[in-house]
TrEMBL record, chain A:
Signal peptide: none annotated. Belongs to the dynactin subunit 4 family. The gene is 100641598. It holds the Pfam family Dynactin_p62. Residues 104-115, 122-143 have a biased composition (Polar residues). Its main location: cytoplasm. Keywords: Acetylation, Coiled coil, Cytoplasm, Cytoskeleton, Isopeptide bond, Phosphoprotein, Ubl conjugation. This is Dynactin subunit 4. It comes from Amphimedon queenslandica. It is found in: Cytoplasm, Cell cortex; Cytoplasm, Cytoskeleton, Microtubule organizing center, Centrosome; Cytoplasm, Cytoskeleton, Stress fiber; Cytoplasm, Myofibril. InterPro entries: DCTN4.
UniProtKB/TrEMBL annotation, chain B:
The lineage of its organism: Eukaryota, Metazoa, Porifera, Demospongiae, Heteroscleromorpha. SUPFAM superfamilies: Actin-like ATPase domain (SSF53067). It comes from Amphimedon queenslandica (Sponge). SMART domains: ACTIN. Belongs to the actin family. It comes from the Eukaryota. This is Actin-related protein 10. Gene3D superfamilies: 3.30.420.40, Actin, Chain A, domain 4.
Length: 481, 429
């Protein structure tokens, strides 16, 4: 689980060391109020929130059971089979069938529509089905009850359309159904065949194993091995039936001469990536492409692995980016930033200016410890010089500041001012030091940040826990003076 | 068609047995199984009971927040602890981004290749049981999975992978492990052969000014492996020997907005020759196939030859099977393979695309709940095993064990297994 070396191979200036020994940016840290622990993305449990499944294109929220039945794809949004962009919907107004044609002349609205069968352009081009639904309620379309709309799909990015591949226009967006799997029937036959074989085997082995105790699980080969049914004509017949299809192995076919004579136009062939978008059919020619229903997306609920309390719960309304419950580290942990990439001197303490910002509304006491961590990590880090004593960060909105006579926003001990580069309410810039030992690699220092913690809710108050610790690793780069 | 069997077995005893097993297990209602085939290039992922995977995606994951894209089989990490994190992130993507399901509510079927490294299997099991707390994981051997998709119990399986091709004879459901052949002649040999041929024979056309110059002059034009596979799949085919020296027309293949490659007809029809010549001193596909047959008991051979199945991404190359047959026929003229000359060689037509045949088989068997649960390892088992899978998991060890029990009676004159190395050395002259 130790992911330290992996993470440190990448350049990111400040990383927090999670208790699972993963290194993460502060934005991926969660804070459990109940365990008083910081947890990263890899040590929380993430679950699909069944109430927050939606389509990224039309933003419709889809109930989980419906989504499951549709294999988690939208019923009326499609994806371009060439470039995966969501397809736009366009429609054509067809004149009403002859007989009630009195309203025919005004079926089409818009500046360019001279003939009734002219395509909807401009205003009638809808990016999402939702807007097209809205458009269909415009007065002009209401005036023509006899006319029908025929839809086709169009890619705004690569200009692929369903007409290009000879898919006829459809009356409804729901009609662009996926083609069934080419061997669906065979698949279903095999499915019930193996279900039967399994049941048969189970029954017959139960009869046999009455005497033999401690039956071991059968290997998969027992399901495949049909030779044992030779004595049972009933089963044998079914087996024969299924295998007769399987055993129709043939002589391979020689490639037609056209392979040697016909020129190949690569632009008419699909790439592997395009083929794999449709695993069932994997069309190799562009003319066989078919629009794919757009995959749905889901918001996730995040829980603490220790106590199962919810750390993050998204809002049910998929159009709003907000959370019902949100317990993240940036709400309680001081934000550590590197002010600039320091100029280093080999073997000597070099100044590393670090800014510390408090996110909380109470006065935060903060102090630093040397990292007491594993050997593995120590090998990567170089010795660090860290400020001694504790510093108090007053909150930004703490008005007592104004009333107070002392204008100093950070209370300092007598010899502590040496460490301070600058200070303001809620923020302090401190001098750290790094003693780089090698010139060829990035100098990294590590230290523990100990900060005070006061829960907002009285119930969470625990007299035992008033301060929290988080190890921080700063990459100082390797620019040597 | 299955009505008869159902009638025979739906005795009261059968019903009670089936239902008691379901009741006794943790999964109350059958939601199906998640079926995963984590390949070296692509991962096939989907749900049991469906004829095709829902997605076929690259076996890669973006390692946030550092921003590097890693393949889950990356040689650098395959034997290191970091693999756990890589697999967790990858499976997270598979379960929560693609499939949109909570994995702990499903049983998992993993298709495992016969050569998958021990650390990979172990770490995968750890990630599934510990990180995702799934209740059951079933490791289904790749050959069995392919056979389920065929509905056949005997086949000579040729699996052309990225780095290896394995020839696995399966007779009456049992993999004949002594006759398995492996060769490094595989998809990556196709890639290296193509790269070589392109640099020898191909020219680059500058789309803007129409300049044409040899590819070897254009050092900075990098051909990625995905470009190479696209060139192979879109323009190349397997030449049949009886066509003689006919050369197909050249093809213009755009690489980027600036350049396109003019792929000579020679390259198009000769790139696949590497599969029949062998690569890096390893034996070719036809030789490993006939060698494998020689290692099979004589009584099985004719049935195996009549059930040749070619799977894997490169199996969809046009003309591959025909050429394979031609080459085998040629080899049969050789005194070493004289004994195979009388056999008929027949190839199966798949009911899937060859890149997800194994997935389809696993999806069929994954839907048979009791069969999977019986052969699964549970979270508790895994804890008892001290978080280490046995060399072959319970179901597999049974598989191998049963082979040893069954083989003496079933397979008459089993030849002593030969080490693949000795076969190889025999062919270097
Ligand atoms: Zn963590
Ligand atoms: Zn939609
Ligand atoms: Zn497009
Ligand atoms: Zn907790």
């Amino acid at each position: 689980m130790a992911s330290i070396p992996l993470a440190l191979e990448y350049k990111r200036y400040v990383l927090y060391l999670c208790r699972c020994s993963g290194l993460v940016g502060i934005e991926s840290l969660y804070f459990c109020r109940h365990c008083k622990l910081l947890r990263c993305m890899d040590c929380v449990s993430v679950q699909i929130d069944g109430t927050c499944i939606s389509c990224p294109s039309c933003n419709d929220s889809v109930p989980q059971t419906d989504a499951k039945a549709k294999k988690f794809r939208c019923t009326h949004c499609y994806q371009c089979p060439m470039c995966t962009t969501p397809l736009a919907t366009r429609f054509v107004q067809l004149p009403p069938p002859p007989g009630k044609s009195e309203s025919a002349p005004d079926t089409s609205s818009g500046k360019t529509d001279a003939s009734p069968t002219k395509e909807g352009t401009g205003e009638s081009t809808a990016l999402t089905p939702k807007t097209s639904k809205r458009l269909s309620l415009t007065p002009s379309s209401l005036k023509s009850p006899g006319s029908t709309k025929m839809y086709y799909l169009f890619c705004t990015s690569c200009h692929w359309t369903t007409r290009e591949v000879d898919i006829p226009d459809k009356r409804s967006l729901l009609d662009f159904k996926e083609k069934p799997h080419p061997f669906q029937d065979r698949y279903k036959a095999l499915l019930s065949y193996y279900k039967d074989l399994d049941l048969y085997e189970r029954v017959s082995s139960q009869n046999m194993s009455r005497q033999v105790s401690g039956r071991k699980p059968r290997p998969f080969s027992s399901l495949l091995d049909t030779s044992k049914y030779k004595k049972d004509p009933e089963v044998q017949r079914v087996v024969k039936q299924v295998q007769s299809v399987a055993l129709s192995a043939k002589d391979p076919v020689r490639l037609p001469d056209s392979y040697y004579t016909e020129p190949v136009d690569v632009s008419s062939l699909t790439t592997i990536q395009q083929k794999l978008l449709d695993p069932s059919h994997q069309p190799s020619h562009v003319k066989d492409l078919w629009p794919h229903p757009l995959p749905l997306i889901s918001r996730k609920t995040i829980r603490c692995r220790g106590c199962d309390h919810i750390l993050l719960k998204p809002d049910v309304n998929v159009n709003l980016v907000r959370f019902k419950i949100q317990h993240v580290a940036i709400q309680v942990v001081p934000r550590i930033r590197l002010i600039n990439v320091p100029k280093l001197t080999l073997g000597e303490p070099s100044l590393v200016p670090v800014s510390i910002t408090s996110p909380v509304s109470y006065s935060m006491t903060i102090s630093f410890n040397q990292l007491s961590s594993s050997k593995k990590l120590k090998e990567i880090l170089c010795p660090a010089v860290i400020p001694e004593g504790s510093f108090v960060l007053k909150s930004l909105d703490d008005t007592s500041d104004l009333l107070d006579d002392s204008s100093q926003s950070v209370s300092l001990g007598a010899d502590q001012s040496d460490y301070v580069l600058s200070s303001e309410p809620g923020r302090i810039v401190l001098k750290f030091g790094a003693i780089p030992s090698r010139e060829d690699i990035d100098a990294k220092i590590g230290f523990e940040v100990v900060f005070s913690y006061e829960p907002l809710i009285e119930a969470d108050r625990d007299p035992g826990v008033t301060e929290l610790t988080v190890p921080v690793i700063i990459n100082c780069g390797h620019s040597f003076a | 068609m299955s009505a008869r069997v159902t009638r025979t077995v739906s005795s009261p005893a059968g019903r009670s047995l089936a239902s008691s097993r379901v009741r006794g297990n943790l999964v109350p209602q059958d939601k199906g199984a998640i079926v995963l085939d984590i390949g070296h290039v692509h991962t096939k992922l989907g749900v049991s009971g469906e004829p095709a995977p829902r997605y076929i995606v690259k076996s890669e994951v973006l390692m946030k927040p550092y921003g590097e894209i890693l393949n889950v089989w990356d040689d650098k990490y395959i034997n290191r602890e970091e693999l756990y994190l890589i697999l967790c992130r990858f499976l997270h993507k598979v379960f929560l981004e693609y499939l949109i399901i909570n994995p702990r509510e499903y049983r998992i079927v993993i298709i495992e290749s016969i050569v998958s490294p021990l650390n990979f299997r172990n770490t995968l099991a750890k990630a599934l049981f510990i990180h995702f707390s799934v209740p059951h994981v079933c490791f289904l051997p790749h050959p069995s999975a392919c056979l389920f998709s065929l509905g056949s119990s005997t086949a000579l399986l040729i699996d052309i992978g990225l780095k290896e091709t394995s020839i696995v004879p399966v007779f009456e459901g049992v993999s004949l492990i002594r006759s398995i052949m492996q060769t490094t002649t595989s998809t990556s040999s196709l890639h290296s052969s193509l790269q070589l041929l392109l640099h020898e024979h191909c020219q680059v056309k500058n789309i803007a000014n129409g300049d044409i110059h040899p590819l070897s002059d254009n050092k900075d034009l990098e051909l990625t492996s995905s470009t190479l596979s696209n060139i192979i799949m879109q323009t190349c085919f397997v030449r049949s020997l009886d066509f003689g020296d006919a050369t197909p027309p050249d093809v213009c293949f755009p690489i980027n907005a600036q350049f396109s490659l003019i792929i000579s007809g020679l390259v198009r029809c000769h790139v696949a020759d590497i599969l029949f010549e062998g690569c890096d001193g390893d034996v070719s596909l036809p030789i490993s196939l006939v060698e494998s047959l020689l290692l099979c008991p004589i009584d099985c051979r004719s049935q195996l030859c009549e059930n040749i199945v070619v799977v894997g991404g490169s199996a969809s190359l046009p003309g591959l099977n025909y050429r394979l047959l031609e080459e085998i026929r040629l080899l049969c003229g050789n005194s070493r393979y004289q004994c195979l000359d009388a056999l008929k060689f027949k190839f199966h037509e798949l009911h899937s695309h060859p890149n997800y045949t194994a997935w389809q088989g696993a999806s069929i068997i994954g839907a048979v709940e009791s069969a999977i649960l019986e052969r699964s390892i549970t979270k508790e088992d895994f804890k008892l095993l001290d978080y280490h899978l046995p060399d072959w998991m319970s179901c597999n060890s049974q598989n191998w064990g049963s082979l040893q029990q069954v083989s003496p009676q079933k397979i008459p004159s089993s030849q002593p297994g030969k080490v693949i190395q000795t076969v190889k050395s025999g062919f270097e002259q």
